[in-house]
């Protein structure tokens, strides 16, 4: 089999993942307002894809021919395939909105009207709203012949307006739709007879264009938006001015090269040519869309206080052993604890940090921060600890894409509080999720660690499915300390890790060793299997090693939410490999790796996917689960996902319905399982 058949296209695989998101918008069993949210997620994902991946393909096309020949696939050919698939998905999104979402809203007496369907009794409201709330935010520009260049902001919606005037040539105007300044894309009209009406902000403007251009007759308005290259060009040395370099690069991102111009498909060809010339894009950047762009704005679609159109609530569950505990350290001193987000509360992490800040016995707090919340309670707890005299070390990854500004803000706040802030590592991103606290106790210092698959972010912990481990096991805490030493001294020498899997040191090699062990066991006729859950599988060496395992008779079950460049189920290559992807209410974000190990399962959970960047160009940490009870807990949750016959799909995006009468929807059965654990919490004792 040819190489490109063994290694599937990363770009097309990602688009297949985003199509699974679109499938959620099309699924009539998903509550209606949640389907609208999935439309927004699909659109937001695609925006980022163009800003990063498509922009990268275009950069590769500029390489010398000799350099391009070293690539797995010709970037020009791959870009053509990508744009063809995107065009198809963009059309499908429009059809989903028009033919499924809009009628479903109407059935609930929610009407998205436009400037042509405004009723007479709504006209006064729309005109008044425009005059008071919208017109002051507008700055229309008529494109005269002396305008030779036009700069459009990244990801901002514009209207191109055709104007006519008696005995004069036709004119064109452009204006920015002020979604951000307005506070959202949608305008709710007064409810009438239990009917609810919504207008796009752009349609409010369309309805009042005559008021904006009193000297012209308005012919038609067309929506456009541009996506720009989001890659930051930052030299890889780390110095005191890295923060300043990133801030300058963020400014450059705003003016990056165009990677896409999305336009209304009804726009005349001459107007397309004019706008392309003025903003400096070619026909290759043109992507045909419909009347409305920026569907990510549907994140702000009004819910009209209709709870039956949303997912039924799943109250955050208490951890059966951590709930109600006023002091965590004595409990963690005795045993390890796993917390599963978003089902269980992230508050235990906040309690861990706040307890450290207040505890006089705590001397040091070290943490890695990749993506923190805007109003981060995590960062505030670290600031509190620093102000109370703890030695706080915060390793903050300033190159976490699209979170750079937030991370810079908190880096400065922590520095002002007296913390030691490490803002980068030459050649690597720090993507591990670690916290290490040292506490002076009766018999000397004791270390407590928190290791996780997800970020220190209380906001995303409510929607990202992750695992976090609290431990004082010296096998782990001593090696976590070594990771922090490396991040501080940047000296890779003498950094030996026996228990932790740490990229770029031993993670790849240890995974390969574990796979090789399964291959040897399979050849001996011993039980041999691998179960691996991750966000993305792209690394070629790991894929080829899994093919080798399959050929040896090792059963490989993969749960891969996003990119998967492995081609499963191919005779004489991967016939013992299955791949499933689960897209549902929450974002599957955890990484779990299980190896049969001849009946004594080895289990790791990790911050790293099997992508080349994670295994070779990032500081990542995978950690074993030693406690048998916790191993069984993780294994049960993974088994639930392997049994999913409601939201699991194969690589062709076909649902893996088993045909059985009983349905298993893993995210819901996970909640039920953890809910039963919560029920083990004894009721509060009654005071006498």
Overall pLDDT: 91
Roughly how much helix do the residues carry, as a percent range?
A: 25-40%
Name the CATH superfamily classification of the largest domain.
Polyphosphate kinase middle domain
Under the CATH scheme, which class of the largest domain?
A: Alpha Beta
Share of β-strand residues: 15-25%
Rg, Cα atoms, Å? 27 Å
List the helices and strands and how they pair.
Elements: H1 3-6, H2 10-26, H3 32-61, H4 65-68, H5 75-107, E1 110-113, H6 120-134, E2 141-142, E3 157-165, E4 168-176, H7 179-182, E5 186-192, E6 195-200, H8 201-207, H9 209-212, E7 217-228, H10 242-254, E8 258-264, H11 269-279, E9 286-289, H12 328-334, E10 337-341, H13 347-358, E11 362-369, H14 377-387, E12 391-396, H15 404-417, E13 420-422, E14 429-430, E15 434-441, E16 444-452, E17 464-471, H16 474-489, E18 501-503, H17 507-523, E19 529-534, H18 540-551, E20 555-560, E21 577-582, E22 587-588, E23 591-595, E24 602-606, H19 612-616, E25 618-624, H20 628-642, E26 648-649, H21 666-678
Parallel strand pairs: 1-6, 8-9, 11-12, 12-13, 14-25, 17-22, 19-20, 20-21
Antiparallel strand pairs: 2-4, 3-4, 3-7, 5-6, 7-8, 10-17, 11-15, 15-16, 16-17, 18-25, 19-23, 21-26, 23-24, 24-25
Helix pairs in contact: 2-3, 2-5, 3-5, 6-8, 13-14, 14-15, 17-18, 20-21
Pfam families: PP_kinase (PF02503), PP_kinase_C (PF13090), PP_kinase_C_1 (PF17941), PP_kinase_N (PF13089)
EC number: 2.7.4.1
GO biological process, one term: polyphosphate biosynthetic process
